Amino acid sequence: MAEIGHDAPLLEHRSLWMDVWLAFRNHTGALVGVGVFAFIVLAVFLGPLLHTVDPHYLDIGARNAGASWEHPLGTDNLGRDMLAQVLAGGRISLAVGFTAMVLALVLGTAIGVLAGYFKRVDGLLMRTTDLFLALPLLPLLLVIIMLFRDTLRTAFGPETGIFLLIVFVIGITSWMQTARIVRGEVLAIKEREFVTAARSVGTRERRIVVRHVLPNVLSPIMVSATLGIANAIITESALSFLGLGFPPDFPTWGRLLFDGANFISITPERVIWPGLAISLTVLSVNYIGDGLRDALDPRLRGT
After folding, report:
1. What secondary structure does DSSP assign to 23-72, as a single string?
2. What are the residues whose beta carbons fall under 8 Å from the beta carbon of 299, sequence distance 6 or more?
3. pLDDT tens track for 199-252
4. Is 51 left (phi over 0), alpha (psi -120 to 50) or beta?
5. What predicted TM-score, i.e. pTM, was given to this entire model?
6. Cα separation of 228 and 233, whole Å?
């Protein structure tokens, strides 16, 4: 009985984020997703320190070789090490995913907050959001890339130019769902007592948004962030698979799929490994998003 009484104050004064962590920890799929995603991130960033083969090195004598101690995942038709290419491609794909997610999240959050809090711009911003949702995104992406690819390559170089273009086109076509979710949350929060009290004492609208509204919409923003990474990786992979992404000597997982498609009957592992990397990354991020959604929703965590 003494032990129960000793622990009771801790339970009574447990913080919101402690409740969220406990609910997240009880979500088995989310924990597995965190483990798999952490393994992939560590592998692509620390793996080259252990597997020091240059992904661009051509070993003509080992073309289309199977798995061996020297080449654990085999080689491609030019003798390049597949493991080194998958690791290098993972760094690029994850960089595109995170950067495009940040761009889409900032744009979607800004539009959602403005539309939800300021009624005078709500109609314009939401009709713009509906317009973007109605656009056929894949043809739009292809048109933008075809129009601006050569210009950005000339201005920033082949790698940096394509990176900026891919991140931009994914970011500006992925913000709409975040904007709609954030707007709905803001519409409810701006009628709460603490916002009314802040407005009644003469607090500026900008300060109310920054200090009172934004902190209370962090939960849908965090969930959108996790799902945005998965969406960006899939979109980049699709563009690279269509041959409109990064150049051949700048591997991404989608580019490796594109290059290996013609050799699938000879060396099917060239498609299996990058495809497996994409699938595991997207699946793990989606499970993390599901866990965050359940943990941040007080109705689902029973509080």
Report:
1. HHHT-HHHHHHHHHHHHHHHHHHHHHHHS---TT---GGGTT----SSST
2. none
3. 888 878 888 888 888 888 887 888 888 888 888 888 888 888 777 777 777 788
4. beta
5. 0.81
6. 9
DSSP per residue, the chain: -HHHHHHHHHHHT--HHHHHHHHHHT-HHHHHHHHHHHHHHHHHHHHHHHS---TT---GGGTT----SSSTT-B-TT--BHHHHHHHHHHHHHHHHHHHHHHHHHHHHHHHHHHHH-HHHHHHHHHHHHHHHHS-HHHHHHHHHHHHHHHHHHHH-HHHHHHHHHHHHHHTTS-HHHHHHHHHHHHHHTTSHHHHHHHHTT--HHHHIIIIIGGGGHHHHHHHHHHHHHHHHHHHHHHHHTT-SS-TTS--HHHHHHHHGGGTTT-THHHHHHHHHHHHHHHHHHHHHHHHHHHH-TTTTT-
Tokens matching residue 262: 């013609």
Query: What single letter denotes the amino acid at residue 157?
Result: G
Q: Quick one: tokens of 106? A: 């900032």
- Rounded CA Rg of the chain: 23
